[in-house]
Specification:
It contains 17 helices and 14 strands. The protein is of the alpha/beta class and 443 residues long. It has an 8-stranded mixed sheet with strand order 3-4-2-1-5-6-7-8, with helices on both faces. α2 links the parallel β1 and β2.
Length: 443
């Protein structure tokens, strides 16, 4: 992790708690065993998006000796269907890697739209209230809630205040802003009312964290005091996801020649991804038999992408793959594809970017140079005009013709991941920030 990111994990203006050092000078954590309640709609065993990161966080914190509880929903993402073996109608309690997990009912729309998404998120917020209230006697040190779903924040705040806990909001996605920018919600009066309510809630959390510097700036603009802001970027296990020494086994599985250049999109196939560009660029490059496209994932936009790619011999589809095959999957790419709608710029920082960089492959991203995503990708790939298939196709052809450049850009990507996104480093700093948050309340 870079010095700037390490400093960002201590809120600006706050006095860091004292930590002893060992003979090497490395910081040692305080001895306090924390009681942490994590609250959010997505959790393991979901393998993509928020569920993946919250699950890894819970498991890591429990492994450090902290008492961790989770209130969440049954897994349903990204297919928008509750997984086999789980129920959307019943409460369920389980122990997962030393973490006590309570799953609550919710409604999952088969075809999510703006209004249906709101009802979906609201159903979880309401159904989870009894489970949330049941934690009052446990007296957690920190109630940590992740947005989406922002509808859960009032309940999280109420429990924190009643139990004497610190309230921590982590923003993976500015869902209110995104809903209006993407046209899922409409109306200036409605936006003004919802935004005012959002600002009121944000200012009442003891800590607000998010995953990029631009998103931190947005939180500050919404009225969060600078000394309450914390940087908590998404991470990657750099020891597991690393450059492959040889050819990926997926080449033989898909019948792709060893000397073909593979452009890979892997991840959620939803509204913010700008998937329309993927079929367009594959169609524009169908005359290039040496360039093959692999689209892997699930989500509400997958069926439309399948239809748009019918008849294209240069496109291969994969379902969401097991997590243990992730290094092989990401290593299949010679070029990673990261489309994103222009109106989602700096509202989200795509979580899939972490694995792309760690795999040591260049990235072609649909992003403006002035966005934080654009600034990162410019160091280790190519920027394309968002939603523009011609621009994507030109960037891919350029990289496909320069294997030495791809190798150099991939090396830069891997270096950036090791320095900024290593899982243990990010979560260790987060653990310190949790201790400091609790210690500040006691002082």
């Amino acid at each position: 992790m870079s010095d700037s990111q390490r400093q960002a994990l201590v809120p600006p203006g706050a006095k860091p708690a004292h930590h002893d050092t060992d003979h090497t000078g490395a910081a040692q954590l305080p001895g306090h065993r924390m009681k942490l309640l994590l609250y959010g709609i997505n959790f393991a065993p979901e393998m993509t998006g928020i569920g993946k990161y919250t699950g890894e966080m819970a498991q890591w914190l429990a492994a450090q000796g902290h008492e961790v509880r989770v209130i969440t929903a049954p897994p349903y993402y990204p297919a928008w269907a509750v997984w086999p073996g789980y129920s959307a109608r019943r409460f369920r309690r389980e122990i997962w890697h030393g973490v006590e997990v309570t799953r609550t009912p919710l409604w999952v729309p088969a075809r999510p739209s703006g209004l249906r998404r709101l009802v979906h998120l609201g159903s979880f917020a309401l159904a989870s209230l009894p489970a949330l209230a049941g934690q009052w006697r446990w007296r957690p040190d920190v109630v940590w809630v992740v947005a989406p779903a922002f509808a859960c924040t009032p309940g999280a705040l109420a429990l924190a205040r009643l139990s004497g806990a610190r309230a921590w909001l982590h923003i993976q996605d500015y869902e209110v802003d995104a809903a209006f920018e993407l046209g899922l919600l409409k109306g200036e009066r409605l936006r003004a009312w919802v935004s005012a309510a959002e600002r009121w809630v944000l200012r009442r959390f003891d800590r607000v964290s998010t995953i990029s510097q631009r998103m931190l700036e947005r939180a500050r603009d919404k009225g969060v005091a600078p000394d309450r802001l914390v940087s908590l970027p998404n991470w990657v296990d750099v020891s597991a996801v690393r450059p492959l020494a040889g050819a990926s086994s997926y080449r033989a599985q898909l019948g792709i020649a060893d000397d073909a250049v593979v452009a890979l999109y892997s991840g959620n196939m939803g509204a913010k991804q700008g998937l329309e560009v993927l079929s367009g660029l594959a169609r524009k490059l169908q005359h290039r038999g040496d360039i093959q496209f692999v689209y892997c994932g699930q989500g509400a936009g997958r069926d439309a992408l399948l239809r748009d790619c019918q008849g294209l011999a240069n496109v291969h589809f994969l379902d969401l793959q097991p997590v243990e095959r992730l290094p092989e999957l990401l290593g299949l790419a010679d070029i990673h594809l990261l489309p994103q709608r222009a109106d989602a710029a700096d509202l989200v920082m795509p979580s899939k970017l972490t694995g792309m960089l760690s795999s040591g492959r260049p990235v072609v991203a649909g992003s403006r140079p002035d966005t934080e995503l654009g600034q990162v990708v410019a160091q280790c790939g190519r920027l394309a005009v968002p939603d523009d298939a011609d621009s994507f196709a030109a960037a891919i052809e350029d990289l496909a013709s320069q294997p030495a450049l791809r190798q150099e850009l991939g090396r830069r990507a891997r270096d950036w991941a090791e320095q900024n996104l290593a899982r243990d480093s990010v979560l260790r700093q987060f653990e310190l920030a949790l201790h400091d948050c609790i210690a500040q309340a006691r002082r």
